[in-house]
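hey m, so remember when u said the tokens were messed up on ur end? i reran from scratch. heres the input so u can diff it against urs
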Amino acid sequence: MLLSSLLIDINAEEINQETDIKLDKVIVSASGFEQDSDSNLRNVIVIEGSELQKKGFNSVEQALERIPEINFVNFGLGRNVDMRGQGDKSNVAVKVMVDGKSINMLDNSHGITPINSINIDNIERIEIILGGGSVLYGNGTRGGVINIITKKQKENAFSIGIKGNGYNHHKLGGNLEINMAKKINEKLAFNFNIEGFNIDGYQEGYNEKGYFINTKTYINPNEYSDLILGYNYFKSKNTGSGYLTKAQIEDNPKQKGNSESISSINRPEITLDYHYYLNDQWEFDLASFWQNQKINYLKDVSTMGFGGMNIPVYQDGSNFEDTITGVNLKSKYNYKNNSYLVFGYEFANHDAKRTSIIHYDVNIPNVFSINHTMTTLMDMNKQSHSIFALDSHEFNDIFSISSGARYEYSLYKTDRNYISKMIISQAPKNNTEAFSTDNKGDNIAFEITPNFKYSNTGNVYLKYERGFISPSPAQFVNKDQKTQKYYSSNLDSETFNTFELGMNDFWWDFYGINLTLFYTLSKNEISYLGNPHSESGAFWKYYNIDQTSRIGAELNLSQSFLNDELIFRQSLAYIDAKISKGVNDGKRIPYVSKIKATAGVEYFINSNLSTFLDLAYYSRSKDSGVIDENTGKMSKNSWIKDYALTDIGLAYHYKKLQIFGGIRNLFDKQYYTYQDSVNNQYLAGNGRNYYLEFKYAF
């Protein structure tokens, strides 16, 4: 587990590198430009890539879920990263970026942010802004921003690594990595990283196999400019066996589920970043990128109840495609010591395609038969133009203030086609429906953050931020139950106001403290009615009505003894996330735990060997229950049980050899990563598992 020792509080100027809470040399996410970590006015969590490796994580998801302020939410289609209690809105309210470029999906109802398409062994660090970031990063930052910074290797290097992992009942799976970097001369260098993996899941029938390719070419035509051309590719084939019932998961959580699926993911990406230093005060950055993700369901078989029978339902051939083309042009003007102005323009063209195929057969001899295939084709596009400015000004050694604004204008287009081919007892009954809509909208975000430095090591800040979550193209289309016709929803963007109070300090040369209190009020929440899979005819409605509130506190502590040979860490994240207007007024937001607490100790036995013990507790939360198709009222929300996890590990370094090993979920605690109690569907979290990694640099 990554605990509070990995939190880098960028406001504490006097905390030196001999402490547990360290100052990183540079961060990017605070201003969009590399800068000294102590020159920003807000807290940014920084997780070093070396810490990720030490813990033996196989994926970005596995690493992030150990962070005190981060949770994961699964509302039926996969796990999405969540911060500050977004619940089932986490895929549209937490922005995830790689080197400053968003990877969130456009299709809100099916989009799972593809964090596991990022090679964890190619990460230099992860920067996290909790709660906000709208001025610099625009739409969908209510929960916060995660910026994954990949490695930049310009010097000659060659290394090879092998990682093994497994469970008590499984054969060993793992990863094989080769990393190379070559410096041609002072103006040209490149690096190449390839890693293959073949990993079984905790549940029988689950397997992931594939590979990552990451390349960068560095061109430095002169001392004032540099250019980086990157190409990344991710490919995987995933096999799953589906949900278990409550009885099954309590009897044996490792057994195969009641369905079968095989899917493939292909994700290429091309990036081009150009940076130019005009002089000591002015610098410019031009970033452009293209990324594409295709998910194909090669086989997907589940069951549904029909007249007391379990009927196979096939979704073979269904697929999703998401493509983003973007340009970000920005400039930074350092007009005085520790004061700067950032301004720029951002363009994004985001396209999503969905092909949904559902087929089933019912055959009762001498009574009747049904052969039914439903195909939905969707083509969704959102084109956004944004201008933004952020000013950070230091008035004196005690007081500084950051303020900024963003204007975003978006154009939407959605084409939707539905084709139903049904044969009932050899009598055809076909139906087709097509609909297109064009929409546009604009949004404004702004923030102001005064900061007071009350001592050489401590400061306190206040923040007010107004941000927005704009609708996805799919949400602009509704379907009427009676007429079975599509129509426009005419939605407004969700807006949120966040008030935050934070302080941090370092006392007595060994005790670090970071405390944040926050309150977020969201208006015009987009709600949903209906049943797109109704046997009497699909129908749904998106509309603005609800309001939500989130109030919470985040506390991180660390203590360092014996010249940093012994380090203790503790953290507590509390959040009360409720619906505060509408038919569900007063109800808890599903899938949000009120408390996440962590504790850990790390001991450096000598300069080559260290060991750690980490604990994490996750309090219970509510599942989605039943939502009335006509009113949207929630009911029968069952509790998802709380759980605690324990990790232990060792790290050994000798010259060019690195060895890491450990056990996650040491006491084999059972918990759920997905729960739908109404439909009796569950997925088990990983039981006790082991890892061992060797890496050698030539």
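this time it looks ok to me. Residues 49-54 form the longest helix (6 residues). if urs says something different then somethings off w ur setup not the seq
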